[in-house]
Amino acid sequence: MKKLRTRRHSVVLNRSAGGDLGITILLVLLGAFMFLPLWYQIVNSLKPLGEINMTPPRFYVIKPTLKNFADLFTNINSTWVPISRYIFNTALISVGATVGCLVLGSMSAYSISKIRFPGHKIVMNIIVYSLMISSTVQSLTNFIVYVALGWLNTYTVSIVPVWASTLGLYLMKQFIDSNVSDEMIEAARIDGANEVYIFSRIVMPLVKPAWLTLIITTFQSVWNSAVSPYVWSEQLKTFNSAITAISAVSQGAASAATVLTMSVPIIIFVVSQAQIVETMGTSGMKD
């Protein structure tokens, strides 16, 4: 009879030691390959101008310098809009869009999953089908709607449309289906709890990984979003707009700005990656 391997007092049935080693090596290689673009951007931010333009490009820096970061703040501060304004706009839009998306997405997901109003399946199908529609296809209709509502060149046009994110709603609905039983909801209703109490005190604590994931992914998406074509006032533009302008003047400063911009979402993701993995794994499971 074949002897079973153990690892920390648990039995390993399906893979040999060589198989585990091979998978580990493969994952390390894939991780290193995916890290290369990030590493190259960090290295570029520390290169002097002569090294940035070297051909072929190098993944290391010979004479590291922080001049690119100094040039970044010098170039931004030389504009008539201070850097603090760009940062404030980015933070305001990111937080406002994230909070609205969380509130509307979670409430909509709960109502579709547990209230079962007439036509809830049709609504859910429409939400799923909307995931296949490209944002480019929506641009013309979005522009017509924004003009009719008077949202052009305002904070509203950068915040409110994010609240209609169907991907977040879909993830929340799938997680509620998998982790909140109908029996639990019915028991709460029999005890006299209203829908607001059930949603806030029972459902939301049980689906904490899902709404944490929704917060993180939405914040990252808005923080890293490209320059909005619906906003042209410099007072309302985000930090990414400033980076776009700087990149035309100084390549080194643009690399430094890119590193600073992507550092915030990366830190947030690293700190909370366990919640994201749990949500993504659960959202595709069926009982």
Task: Write up what this structure looks like.
- This protein has a two-stranded antiparallel ribbon.
- The chain has 14 helices and two strands, in the order ββαααααααααααααα.
- Helices cover 69% and strands 2% of the residues.
- The chain has helices at residues 17-45, 49-52, 67-77, 83-115, 120-130, 135-149, 156-159, 166-179, 182-190, 195-206, 208-223, 239-247, 251-271, 273-283; strands at residues 5-7, 10-12.
- Helix 1 packs antiparallel against helix 13 and helix 12 runs antiparallel to helix 13 (251-271).
- Strand 1 (5-7) and strand 2 (10-12) form a beta hairpin.
- The mean pLDDT is 80.
- It is mostly helical and 287 residues long.
Strand adjacency order, main sheet: 1-2
Major sheet summary line: 2 strands, antiparallel
Number of helices: 14
Query: What's the shape?
Result: globular
- Percent of sequence in beta strands: under 5%
Percent helix: 55-70%
Span between termini: 35 Å
For the CA atoms, what is the radius of gyration? 24 Å
N to C succession of SSEs:
EEHHHHHHHHHHHHHH
Structural class determined from secondary elements: mainly alpha
Mean of residue pLDDT?
Answer: 80
Low-confidence stretches: none
The total count of strands amounts to 2
Q: Please state the oligomeric state of the protein chains shown.
A: single chain
